Amino acid sequence: MAIQKVGVVGCGLMGSGIAQVCAAAGFPTMVREVSADLMDKGLKGIEKQLSRLGEKGTISEAAKGEIRGRLKGTTSLDDLKGCDLIVEAIIEQLPAKRELFASLDIICPPSTIFASNTSSLTITEIATATKRPQRFVGLHFFNPVPVMKLVEVVRTIATDDAAYEEMVAFGRKLGKTPVRAKDSTGFIVNRLLVPYLLDAIRALEEGVGSIEDIDNSMKLGCGYPMGPLTLLDFVGLDTTYYISQIMFDEFKERRFAAPPLLKRMVLAGWNGRKSGRGFYDYADPQKPRPMKF
Ligand code: CAA
User: Fold this and answer.
1) Residue 130, pLDDT score
2) pLDDT tens digits for 68-127?
3) Ligand 1 centre from 142 Cα, in Å?
4) Which CATH number fits domain 6-182: 3.40.50.720, 3.20.20.140, 3.10.25.10, 3.40.630.10?
5) Which residue, 21, 62, 117, 270, is the most exposed by fewest CB within 10 angstroms?
6) pLDDT at 233
């Protein structure tokens, strides 16, 4: 059964991006937030992205209108009952995700496929809140979702072949390159990315180089689009700290352990770009200035 209608739960940074790419790929998309205020904020964010694409000439006025027409917001979970696929992008907390999927399991027909955009939690542990673990996968997108070409399609030991292949095909329909990953904490990208980011902080702590020199080294020496400390500010230091704790808990390996500096920055509320301060100061967002430690 091919996916016709998509539901997205959560319209924050990731959810709004996912809803936008689903609607842009031609899927009627219903996105749900918990309050009218958050719903409004999320839809306005998508509108801003679409306007930017329009101004650059990437999409026509007509295409913008069609995307808007396919995208609907709601605060009621019941409105998702007609969806063939539901992608969850809510807060990264296991109890909240389990509770949400247990409710959706009652609302949606058994044929609906459930997917979580979690970056670090175990898909199996979320799926077991439902009676359909065979139709449960991970669909892990990357920030900014409309730009990044990858989606990790994660299967658990319980996911059946038909649902899994449907999700790989769905990833392609979104214009992404799907990669197949098993339900191992961090999947492929964070398994490799998180130790690299944490090592960049350790290099800074040990005085190997300055913030700018560490960033420039990886940008200019390796061709990465952002240096690791800029990327940490972009992803969010609180998010990275949280992911590293889950990965360390799973693997008990030093490479996943949060360096003391990261912990202290998160405690101080220096969560990166979104909080105005991280490894850089974003008082002028166009000209971030490296912090002094
Ligand atoms: N939302 C939507 N579009 C955006 C955007 C955003 N937040 N930021 C930039 N873009 C678009 C721009 O509009 C531009 O589009 P066009 O080519 O059509 O003009 C394009 O992206 C390039 O942007 P810029 O020229 O302004 O800047 P850039 O060349 O430096 O690219 C970037 C910006 C795409 C973010 C690039 O720096 C990059 O790829 N950085 C690395 C991002 C990354 O690694 N993301 C993964 C993080 S890990 C994660 O998400 C998962 C996890 O579990 C933690």
Assistant:
1) 98
2) 999 999 999 999 999 999 999 999 999 999 999 999 999 999 999 999 999 999 999 999
3) 10
4) 3.40.50.720
5) 62
6) 98
- With the most atoms of ligand 1 within 8 angstroms of its CB, the residue from 21, 55, 140, 147 to mutate is 147
Provide the pLDDT for residue 293.
Answer: 83
DSSP-assigned beta bridge partners for residue 141: 151
CA dihedral 48, 65, 170, 154 (to 10 degrees): 20
Residue with tokens 């996911």: 159
Residue nearest to atom 54 of ligand 1 (CA): 235
Count other Cβ atoms within 10 Å, centred on residue 177.
Answer: 11
Atom nearest to 240 CA in ligand 1: 54
| CATH 3.40.50.720 domain extents, the chain | 6-182
- Residue 192 confidence (pLDDT): 98
Residues in the chain, pLDDT under 50: none
CATH architecture of 190-287: Orthogonal Bundle (1.10)
Parts of the chain belonging to CATH 1.10.1040.10:
190-287
The rounded distance, in Å, linking the Cα atoms of 272 and 237 is 6
